Amino acid sequence: MNKIVKNILAVAVLLLMTPYLINAQTDERNRVASTIIADALNSLPASDKDTENKLMLEIIEIGPESISDLAKMLKPASIGGNAKIEYALDGLCDFVSDPQNRFYKKILSDGLFEALDVVENEEVKAYLISLFRNFGDTRDADRLMKYAESNDLFEVTVQTLASILGTRQNVEEIAKNCDANQRCIVAYAIANQRVGNCEDMLIQWLDGADAKTQEAIYYALSIIGTEKSLTLLSGKAKSAKFNYEPTDVTASYIRLLDKFANMGKTELVEPAAKIFLKSKNANIKIEGFNLLSKIGGDNYTDVFCNALKDKNIQVRMAALEVLKPIADSMVCATVVKNMNGKHDVEAINWLGEVGDKTQLEYVVNQLNSKDSLAVCEAIQSIVKIGDNDAMLKLVPFFGTNYQPVLKSALISTKNNCDVMIAEALKGTNEQIVGALNVLESRTYINQVYTVRRLLSNDNQQVKGAAYKALKGVSNAGTSEYLRDLLVKVDEKYVKDVQDAIMKSMAYANDKSKANFVYLLKNVEPAKLTRFYRVFAYFGDDLSIMKLKDGYKSKATRNQALEALLTVDNPSIAPTLFDIAMNDVANRDEILTRYIVLINKSDISPVDKLTAYRNVLGLNPNDDIKNLILKNIEATQTYQGIILASYYLEEEETAQCAANTILNIATKHPELNGAEITELLLKIKDILNDGDAMYKRTQIDEHLKKIAKAPKFELSDEEKAEGFVVLFDGTNLDQWVGDKTDYVVQNGNIYVSADYGDEGNLYTEKEYGDFVYRFEFCFTRPGVNNGVGIRTPMHADAAYYGMEIQILDHDDPIYAGLREYQVHGSVYGVIPAKRIVFPELGTWNTEEIYAKGDHIRVTVNGEVIVDGDIRKACNGRNVAPEGKKGATSGTIDQNNHPGLFNKSGKISFCGHGEGLLIRNVRIKEL
Amino acid sequence: MKRKEFLTAMGGFALFSIVPSKVLGGERHIAPSDQLTKGIIGVGGIGRSSLHFTNDESCRLTAICDVDSKHLDAARLQAKDQLGIEVKTYHNYRDLIQDPNVDIVHIATPPHWHGIMAVEAANAGKDVMCEKPMTRTIGEGKKVMEAMKQNGRIFRLNTWFRFKDTFYGLGTTVEPLKKLVDSGLLGWPLKVTISGHTGFNWKFFWVGKENLETQIVPSNLDYDMWLGPAPYKPYNEHRTHQTFRGYWDYDGGGLADMGQHYIDPVQYILGKDNTSPVLVEVDAPQQHPDAVGTWRSIKYTYDDGCQIILEGEDNGDPKAPYIEGPKGKVYKGFECTIPNVMQRLLDFPNPELQRTDFLECVRTRQKFALNEENGFRSSTIVNMGVCALRLGRNLKFDPASLRFVGDDAANQLINQPMRNPWKI
Question: Which residue, A899, A832, A821, is CA-closest to A33?
């Protein structure tokens, strides 16, 4: 990125000195403007921002002509096929709209305007005009004005102008000259640019305007309007009875009032708002409150409070809403006064939300209400407000129908509720049980001694609830007590005490765990089993050892195993496997847990596979086999595929195995051996789930990707003639140069060159006179490459040797191609007969015959070049020295100093990806 | 009792509190006069789904609207056959909005209509249920928020993971995640990764096609009205029903269409319902101006350093945690690096209760759990990503002014021009 920024800045400085880079010349890669554009189009869409910036910079550096050339390639939207050009133009707009590239804005503008002058199709013009929305400035706006004169371009031009910052004058000028049927569009533009001068004109326009235009005018007036508009809109809205109707005038009236309210214009807003309050429409009344609230809510407390008596809940709730920010004790008292006995639920809820303490008496009284909703609401508000005295009044509700409401309030509040919990724990048995029930879900450590006392309560319900509540009164300080308790506790409370111990040890480190375990040394084995669940929870080495010991003894084996299976520590996995080896009865259960732990563990994929293989060796049940097969996928290894492949035969495991193979193989195209191909073909027939169709397609696609072509061998005739193979589909051993962008893939040379590298691949040897044969295939439109012959390395073959063009010259991006650039041409020297290519993806054969000055090119059996390079340029391959303005004799008038080279390398000269080459062979003459 | 009066009468029974009515035991009987009614705009895919195409005692379906007469006919028949009711049918949504027999307007159109319809429904005094994504631009979302407030309307954005259902790859509801984050056990700031690896699919098959050929508009479709405020483009069926998601003019691919499902709960978990990120960074191939493409990653950063990272399909770290804080991480399946996390959480309060019964909210005029304000904020995150993606560059954002900082072109995307004669 930095590099690009620097580059851009450097160019920016240059730009200040010269209008544009000289475009008739070539860039540092010797490409002429049209090639740069074609190359860029060919590389779009860019794979990332840096590439995009680089390509856009290349285009824009050429100057406005490049932009206008691009724009001129656009076809009307109804014909389409513009995607590449749209990528380029949109990319250019994005590029110059980036604040750091603002220097380039003018080039883009000039180019687009140049094209706008020439392009005739209105759709294309409209598209080009719309591009200015993104980056245009006032200068562009002035130049765009003339397009507003065209009826077809009016909307896009006005909208574009309205999007550009600072175009008030332009919009105003258009407003003055537009027709009645264009006023709708213009009114929105006036609103967008906030053209204050247009108010009177807009009002005049209302005369005879249709509903849509009225709607637009009212909207514009609501944005730019003064008091004059307010009066007008007020009248219109009143006539519409403030209802929603096609001109939406009420909404516009409200918008303007809102604006004045924000400006603090009380004298304008207040009377209007008060009229709103008399409306039958609840939403209009509500806006009345909103307006008054905006211009100073505390002046209208009475108005809001009176509305609390309204029959309509919408009105009451809106009034309560505007009262929230001004809720002092006076307001709260009035709320209660006005709603008491009629709308208690709403009042209580509101008092809870504003956290008022002055009306607590009222809220507490509502606890006696006959309306169960009011009681619910009061309970919640009291907890929310968090006043201890009030909360004490909630104690009687523990253990009643209201228990769930009370509990959910207590476990989600941040307020301290200890006092009322403590009180409840002293209450009736129902209250005690209710309070204990809260402690089950939320820690109240201060109640620890109370809860302990309740463990010995005579009432079985209290006792049971107290045990369940133990975990809510547990922390590190209680673990010792709980340990002793677990030894002696009645069997039915064992789980509750275990839970409490687990809670108390939640933050314990290995040392305190070890200490805990150590202090159990005197516990008799039968009682020690009660700690197994705790040991498993600890999961440290010592605890695990205790469990293993327990497993060894027949008396405690089952309990120990049960605990071992809950240990959430992968390090226990080997132990589980050992146990599984011998414990046939429980084997499946143990192995299942083992596999889960292996999958979770940090060991390498290969080690995981070994573990899975070991389990499979025990021939477990199908569920386990399938679990393993699913887990194999996560290893993403070739070995995993092979392991899974053994389970394709049995019906019960075939689906899992097939899916695993699919999900590994398709993510690893480098695994392209014959075994993989075979397996994929096999699972195509096996897969039978709901997505099987989709998966079979996926396999076909993948197989295409990894298909290995057979090695190319010369025909007997060619062998006899003395041809030798330069590329047989397997390697680039006889080639040098860019081997990172020319890749052997599926028996072809795939050109993936994507800028950056030199992009040329050369034969290792040099050749003078020869017959060179190969096949090529375009995999995407617009491919540009070439065969360099008699060329040195690291030089442009077209000039320092010869380049026999390879080009998908039918692609629209090459619309402006010269005859000596079409496929097969000796680039710049001898034009080729323009051939028609078969559809993309088809292989073409080519032969290049070079003997002395005689060059012949044959494509798909058709001779398209047959000429003499010396005659073609009258022997003048370079411009005569010293003569000003003189050019070479070549058709492109460029110097071709290497044209008459006796010999050199043969190369492929890349301009981007998308070319496949195969079966390359040569015969020297 | 006349329908007009029903709202005034229902304060008595309406359960105001957040606690579900069944807590008190027994099902309430709803008198016919206390029923709410709804009308659905857009009865194509989602609007006609069993989830929304309902009619019951608490809320009657009275009207439907579509610009495709095939959809409208099919829905009318469905109402007759499956629900046993006759519904009014409309072609123009404005007629449905003005129908006095509609209390709640359910907007199930493509997203480019959401903003306009929601605002107009509010102006007409209707409550609104709107499908996700809330709006297609940040500017439209702001207008929806203003209109709801002005008119005192109840709004529900229809995604729900912040308050119910298993949250994709997490294998749990959002509640324990929220509780864990609120507890501070993970530390601060937090980084949330939403990717295939953490259990979220960006559905990149929802991309558009370039070089669409022009087709003849089917006679059952009012294409001009279907486009509405969107720029005119020649008809091709791929632009419309179901596949509209692949075009920037109407939606924004998997990012826009699934984004709010995935991101809204994150805003809630992080406690960011009142704010937005200050920076969005993108890594993606260049986007076509019309057809939505794919992307590699989109990274959001809040002013306090919290981050939300979206990784496109098969992108990003396969071992990335879903939430990462300085003191702990949570992985897919709620695997947490904090030992004994469930026991530890017992020491902390549960998240605040949310109001999750929309009809109850309509009756009692309380904000729904996912409303126009927090919905706007999560929609804004999605739209920030869309803007950055379309421009192909990183953008700074001011959560207070709701504008991008120092980038005029990005701000052009906040309020996009609407085709004549539409406005919001």
Answer: A821
End-to-end alpha carbon distance in chain B: 36
Question: How many Å apart are CA A21 and CA A23, to the nearest integer?
Answer: 6
DSSP label at residue A860: T
**Shared domain check, B100 and B66:** yes
Q: Is residue A621 part of a domain?
A: no
For residue B422, being part of any structural domain is answered with no
Taking an 8 Å cut-off on Cβ atoms, the answer to whether A86 and B153 are in contact is no
Q: Based on the domain organization, do B140 and B268 belong to the same domain?
A: no
Low-confidence stretches of chain A (pLDDT < 70) are 1-29, 670, 673-674, 694, 708-710, 740, 752-758
Q: Both tokens of residue B133? A: 């994504």
Is A438 domain-assigned? no
pLDDT digits (tens, 9 = 90+) for B25-82: 344 455 555 689 999 999 988 888 877 889 888 999 999 999 999 999 999 999 999 9
Residues of B in contact with A165 (CB under 8 A): 408
CATH of the domain at B273: 3.30.360.10
**CA-based nearest distance B413→chain A, Å:** 9
Number of alpha carbons in the 13 Å side-chain half-sphere of residue A22: 4
**B46 in the same domain as B187:** no
Q: Does the bond joining B133 to the residue before it have cis omega, within 30 degrees of 0?
A: yes
Of all residues in chain B, what percent are helix, strand and coil, respectively (each to 5)? 35, 15, 50
- State the count of interchain CB pairs (< 8 A) between A and B: 225
**H or E segment to which residue A863 belongs:** strand A862-868
Among the listed residues B212, B169, B197, the one whose alpha carbon sits nearest the alpha carbon of residue B333: B169
From the list A83, A159, A404, the residue facing B19 with the nearest CB is A404
The whole model's pTM is what? 0.82
The domain in which residue B121 lies consists of 3-158
Is the pLDDT score of B2 beyond 70?
A: no
Of all residues in chain B, what percent carry a pLDDT higher than 90? 82
Alpha-carbon distance of A59 to A56, in angstroms, equals: 5
Q: What percent of chain A has pLDDT over 90?
A: 78
Looking at chain A, which residue has its C-alpha nearest residue B125? A283
Count of the separate structural domains present in chain B? 2
By the 8 A CB rule, do A67 and A59 touch? yes
Q: Which residues of A touch B231 (CB under 8 A)?
A: 130
Q: Nearest by CB to A94, from B7, B391, B418: name it.
A: B391
Q: Does A411 touch chain B (CB under 8 A)?
A: yes
- Which of B140, B158, B176 terminates a domain? The answer is B158
- Phi, psi dihedral angles at A737 (to 5 degrees): 105, -140
Q: What is the dihedral of CA A212, A214, A220, A223, to 10 degrees?
A: -110
At A904 the three-state DSSP class reads strand
Q: Are A781 and A808 in contact (CB under 8 A)?
A: yes
Residue A681 lies in a domain: no
Please give the residue range of the domain that contains residue A98: 1-135
B10 contacts in chain A (CB < 8 Å): 313
The interface predicted TM-score (ipTM) is 0.92
What residues 297-356 of chain B have any CB closer than 8 A to a CB of chain A? 339-340, 343-344, 346-347, 349-353
A127–B contact, CB cutoff 8 A = no
Q: Omega of the bond prior to B100 within 30 degrees of 0, cis? A: no
Q: Which CATH number goes with the domain that contains B89? A: 3.40.50.720
Domain boundary among A135, A166, A201: A135
Is B226 inside any structural domain?
A: no
Contacts 24+ apart (CB under 8 A), B49-56: B52/B106, B52/B108, B53/B78, B53/B79, B53/B82, B53/B83, B54/B83, B55/B79, B55/B83, B55/B85
The reported pLDDT for the residue numbered A525 is: 86
User: Is B116 inside any structural domain?
Assistant: yes
Distance from the Cα of B76 to chain A's closest Cα (Å) equals 26
User: What is the rounded distance in angstroms from the CA atom of residue B263 to the CA atom of residue B276?
Assistant: 12
